[in-house]
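Exercise 7b. Backbone tokens:
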């Protein structure tokens, strides 16, 4: 079977023919809306690509991984090998995987700080002299242009799936300005939050979105019910509550605003918020706007959290020393820059002792963790009733937009009135709601009979004792067909949940393989082994643009994202990889081979432990994945 390199080369050739506007047809892999296990017909299938919008017309019958293709499916790579699957769940026979900070050699720290000093010195000199002697030129440089414009502001087009189309540019003035050449390059995409691969331009989710546009239009006007929400809106909220296992849920049109506008509605003056030091900016803004007293604990450090809880609860409010009205602990399920997973079992244990309320931001973990893709509670097999407030977004695993708050019905009813996103913000548009409903329903699976009444989750009071979920009494269940819009018909592979389960298991395999493979190659890697966020530490800021450009010039090109201050500390600049269920094992092989080559040139391999050669890593991938400690 040809490697993914030949696949992407074939796609680049078709793109070149498309730019010359020649008609063509080549064999293709199918859209993933059909089950990848179906055997392909012997006849050649074909697709056509429009150069203007990159819309693909896919064949009906999908081939299997064992068959030979001459090109690559641009949105989702097919893989029928069951060995390349893994189940994302916590192993309670082993201790929780604590965050490990592996330090590089001292010369790396020294070179990094020298580079930062030179960078700041030159920057201040440019600002000082530019404002006085080259005002017009100085204004031209701020803020959109600079030496890393081609790395941090790379324009793309099309769907951010397994591969992505980047618009070619060139510079004649050392990257101060960029000029479009009119060309396009298709590259392997390892940088998007498309965890389950639902960002597709074709398939059943796209069909549902098109049908919603035909029925409702592109805005929420004219489809509202008496309560102020459309039927799709009500259906989506009920589906979210059932999916995460709570009594009720509300949805917001923007994920960032979900935190920043609803946290102030939960607590106020006289209350205490205890926040992880690496919580997202949206949480920080919401916390500041609440007016509550704020304390910070070390990232995912349970001893730091417990010590802080003892102090603040025993001392009470400053000056008056009265008891706090509320104590709210806010953490993330999966941290977007570190790739670490919250130590939920320990936090729930502390919750039983200190009787605080718990708020979990699952923007990155929902859909990406757990055997059923239902986030950290699913991953640790802890009932959602143990958590007071579950927050998440639809922009990652579900390929949509917006966010949600889930919890007890009394809480949600209160937040509908007190949260600023409720009465003041725009509602989510019907096409986005259709994408949410279709993707989430496919993960849950659809049954014709309604779920039994005794299978619903009941919310316990704050501080209740948490026990592992009894699957006979609290089954996760599937969504009744009556809960979906009557016009939304999912194909069998999606309706029975088999395809979504395959996606979840492929994501788990790809995440662990990339994480373990990079460590075996000698890189310093942060994060949990099941995390779909894999940070590769680069340290030196001068190497960031070089790493991006070398990965983009690799064959095939690879699009990566680099992160530095203020998102991370100055000295821990990194590349952040985001594997997806849409990637094949061969795709991860390509990324590992590219990192091995580029990392050797840039001197990035400073990790400790046993090292393997790149061929050994690729050949022993399955063994490597299942031997990773969890």
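Sequence design result:
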């Amino acid at each position: 079977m040809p490697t993914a390199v030949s696949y992407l080369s074939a796609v680049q050739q078709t793109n070149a023919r498309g730019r010359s506007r020649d008609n063509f047809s080549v064999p293709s892999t199918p859209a993933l809306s059909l089950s990848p296990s179906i055997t392909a017909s012997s006849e050649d299938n074909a697709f056509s690509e429009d150069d203007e919008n990159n819309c693909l017309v896919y064949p009906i019958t999908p081939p299997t991984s064992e068959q030979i293709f001459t090109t690559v499916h641009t949105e989702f790579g097919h893989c029928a090998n069951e060995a390349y699957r893994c189940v994302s769940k916590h192993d309670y026979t082993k201790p929780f995987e604590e965050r490990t900070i592996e330090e590089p050699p001292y010369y790396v720290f020294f070179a990094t700080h020298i580079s930062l000093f030179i960078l700041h010195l030159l920057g201040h000199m440019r600002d000082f002299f530019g404002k006085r002697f080259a005002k017009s030129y100085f204004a031209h440089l701020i803020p959109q242009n600079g030496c890393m414009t081609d790395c941090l502001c790379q324009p793309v087009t099309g769907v951010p799936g397994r591969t992505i189309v980047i618009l070619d540019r060139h510079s004649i003035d050392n990257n101060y300005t960029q000029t479009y050449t009119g060309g396009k390059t298709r590259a392997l995409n390892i940088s998007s939050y498309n965890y389950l691969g639902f960002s597709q331009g074709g398939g059943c989710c796209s069909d549902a979105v098109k049908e919603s546009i035909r029925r409702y239009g592109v805005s929420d006007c004219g489809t509202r019910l008496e309560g102020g929400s459309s039927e799709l809106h009500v259906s989506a909220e009920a589906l979210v509550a059932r999916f995460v296992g709570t009594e009720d849920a509300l949805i917001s049109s923007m994920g960032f605003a979900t935190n920043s506008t609803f946290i102030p509605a939960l607590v106020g003056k006289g209350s205490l918020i205890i926040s992880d030091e690496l919580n997202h900016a949206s949480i920080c803004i919401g916390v500041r706007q609440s007016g509550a007293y704020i304390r910070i604990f070390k990232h995912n450090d349970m001893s730091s959290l417990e010590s802080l809880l003892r102090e603040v609860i025993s001392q009470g409010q400053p000056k008056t020393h009265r008891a706090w009205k509320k104590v709210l602990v806010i953490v993330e399920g999966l941290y977007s820059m570190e790739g670490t997973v919250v130590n939920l079992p320990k936090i729930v244990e502390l919750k039983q002792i200190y009787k605080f309320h718990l708020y979990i931001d699952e923007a990155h973990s929902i859909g990406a963790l757990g055997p059923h893709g239902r986030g950290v509670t699913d991953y640790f097999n802890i009932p959602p009733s143990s958590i007071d407030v579950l927050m998440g977004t639809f922009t990652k695993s579900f390929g949509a937009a917006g966010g949600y708050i889930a919890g007890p019905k009394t809480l949600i009813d209160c937040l509908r009135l007190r949260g600023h996103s409720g009465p003041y913000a725009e509602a989510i548009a019907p096409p986005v709601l259709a994408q949410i409903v279709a993707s989430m329903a496919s993960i849950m699976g659809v049954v014709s009979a309604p779920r039994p009444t005794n299978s619903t989750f009941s919310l316990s009071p704050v501080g209740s004792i948490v026990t592992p979920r009894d699957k006979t009494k609290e089954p996760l269940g599937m969504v009744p067909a009556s809960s979906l819009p009557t016009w939304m018909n999912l194909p069998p592979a999606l309706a029975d949940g088999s395809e979504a389960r395959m996606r979840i298991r492929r994501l788990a395999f790809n995440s662990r393989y990339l994480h373990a493979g990079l460590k075996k190659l000698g890189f310093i890697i942060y994060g949990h082994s099941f995390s779909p966020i894999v940070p590769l530490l680069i340290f030196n800021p001068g190497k960031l643009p070089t790493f991006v450009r070398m990965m983009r010039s690799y064959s095939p090109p690879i699009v990566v994202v680099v992160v530095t201050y203020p998102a991370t500390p100055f000295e821990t600049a990194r590349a952040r990889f985001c594997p997806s269920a849409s990637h094949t094992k061969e795709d991860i092989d390509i990324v590992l081979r590219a990192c091995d080559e580029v990392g050797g040139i840039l001197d990035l391999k400073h990790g400790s432990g046993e090292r393997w050669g790149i061929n050994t890593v690729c050949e022993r991938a399955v063994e490597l994945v299942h031997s990773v400690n969890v």
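Instructor comment: Confidence is low (pLDDT under 50) at residues 18-72, 140-145, 221-228, 450-475. Residues 204-496 form a domain with the Aspartate Aminotransferase; domain 2 fold (CATH 3.40.640.10).
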